Amino acid sequence: MKTIKLIAFLVLLAQTALSQTLPPPLPPPPPSAGQVSKADSLFNEGSIKEAVNEYKKLYCSNTGDRIVVYNFARALSRDGQIDSALKYLNIAVNIEPEVRPLTDPNLLAIRESKQWADFENNLIKLIGKRSGNPIIDIDYAKALWRLQCMDQYCFYETLIAVRKLGSDSPVVSAMRRLQNMQNQKNVEDIGILLKEKGWPKRSKVGPEAAGAAFFVLQHSNASAQEKYLPMFEKCCRENEADYQQYALMLDRMRMNRNLPQRYGTHYNLDNRATNERILYPLEDEAKVNEWRKEIGLEPLNDYLIRSNISREPLDSSKK
User: Fold this and answer.
1) N or C: fewer beta carbons within 10 Å in the chain?
2) Residue 224 resides in a domain
3) pLDDT, tens digit (0-9, with 9 covering 90-100), for 32-80
4) 304 touches 296 (CB < 8 A)
């Protein structure tokens, strides 16, 4: 039940934080499963020192639980205990190597430390050994992982500020401005990378790193999105990029241009009081399912039902 409430809150925050008509991205879900523990709740509330103490208790009774160890490392990083955070992060990735630490903003304190390079290089080797598909362009992948991490910069802090102070708080407004400044820097950085390297290919940098360019540009502006969409589409045709992400970015670009969307991936909040999701206008109702099928998307009605999106606002005068 607590997990469901947490996810609902994340969704509500994303909807509350609308910038004009477009919602910001949801943050990645916390790396925990099942019922949220006391340690998780304290972490989500920003009570870091208390969370560290609770995670330590959990770790002592679950030393082989990767999720517990990983969350312990995140809390230690947030608390500025770099050496201890690295110790437990290394334990977690040796249990199961994964890319997540390379994109997790909760580990920024470690990322900015002198020890990061050795940790990152070791993890890359572990991931390649486990998957059998080593990263080919490691330098490009590293740059993309970092951008994916910075794409979520201050989201955790803003979540806490909204929850405790309200969405109209000047603290929240300041956090939003800081996020926008970071987004602009991210767009500049991804532009340099794309000019030098081209759109990242999954076979060269891995799927997580390949998705970083999408996430950064999805949170940019119509001009930047339109500039790189042809490059993105080409990689999709070569099966080196994700067509679903392409559809999201094309529709977002058209929305930013005040044009109807093509694939039906986006909605507006018609009623903030009820959080009713209303499908943003379509470019061509008769062709939308044909366009969606061409890139491997499910029929629009199936997507709308699954995502709880309405085609028209509810008429309150009808019973």
Assistant:
1) C
2) no
3) 445 678 999 999 999 999 999 999 999 999 899 999 999 999 999 999 9
4) no
Q: What is the largest CA-CA distance in the chain?
A: 64
Contacts of 185 (CB under 8 A, 6+ apart): 150
Residue 22 inside a domain? The answer is no
H or E stretch covering 163: helix 155-165
Tell me, yes or no, whether 74 lies in a domain.
yes
Domain extent, residue 89, equals: 31-131
pTM for the model: 0.84
| CATH code, domain carrying 87 | 1.25.40.10
- Contact status, residue 256 vs residue 221, Cβ threshold 8 Å: yes
Residue count of the chain, please give it: 319
Gap between the Cα atoms of 165 and 185, Å rounded: 27
For residues 71, 183, 134, 242, the Cα torsion angle rounded to the nearest 10 degrees is 110
Instruction: Report the alpha-carbon distance of residue 270 to residue 309 in Å, rounded.
Output: 11
